Amino acid sequence: MAKKDTLKEIIRIGTEHISLQGFGATSIDALLKEAGVPKGSFYHYFKSKEDFGLAVIDHFAERFEQRLDIFLNDEEVAPLDCIRNFLENAQVRIVQNQCNKGCLLGNLGLEMADLNERFRSCLDEIFNKWQERFAECLRRAQATGGISAEIDPGIMACFILSGWEGAILRAKVMKSPQPMKDFITVLFGSTLR
Amino acid sequence: MSTKGEVTREKILTVARELFNTKGFYATTISDLVEATGMRKGCLYFHFSGKDAIVRVVLNDVIEGFFATLDRLFDGVDPGVGINSLLTFMLDMNLTTGFVGGCIFGNAALEMSDTNHEFEETMGKFFADWTGKVQSVVSKAQAQTKIRTDLDSLALAQIIIATLEGGVMMSRVQKDERPLRTCLDTLRLTLELKY
Q: What is the ipTM of this complex?
């Protein structure tokens, strides 16, 4: 395997293990075995398990940003529908995984917020970015009359992100997409109306 | 009066609960419990066969306690007021802890799903029962038009619980009460809750 691919593979499998089991229960040995990578290579790329976890978060956030770009910047679609398309696409992806994985960052938020300050501040920063992306979309919706001018975009964005993360967590536990479906129904059927 | 053995057992459970809540179930080891209780390992094993046995009792205790609290919040009051009390209770509880530890049920559910079958089932049942209790108070509120009636009671119950879970998680990450507060305010408006 080329070096670049080794790193990619460690991160890919690491993302999978952490999504399914959480960070604490993820064993570096097990994931290296699955990747067919010797332990020395791991420590060539990462100083510690913590560094590895942070790299997985960064990688996830990067891909997430790309999806936000695709859906929220879609100029063919009304701003509110951009948000709806994004959430519905996320729901499809989660169902494809049998709802087993949930949202990597939401899971880590619950697991790590009080255990590791580097994780916490990293997650905090990323969630804030996401929230701002939703807020921006809501402001565009207001400008085009898609939602009431009385709605505070920052507050609504916080509600959407938090409620959505909660719904994904519920879906993981229930092994059913129902909480996500209900969230989308209520959000667009009433909250944003 | 409790015997000395009962006191010791209680102490182990109290300390374990605190550790599970802040460190997580997985990351808490028997050695952590030995250190935090100041007891000898043998003493812990005299009372419990191992970590799973402690987790089992702690989970059952917190679940029982939580449902008792729900009954207290909902029974004999106007259902709109009951639902609002639930929202306020969540915020107050987390303000007391300074958003450390967050929701022990959310944590447990997350850690147990896909890793431990027995506890995954326990948590699955807990969330189903919790949803059922919230749905039942939502139905009562709908019958008295204290909450919107154009959506079904199960969907509203799901939204209430998801928003609480997500709001607590976000507040824990930000170490700031505002995300949860914001979520609860928006939730009240969304539900058209009268209380």
A: 0.92
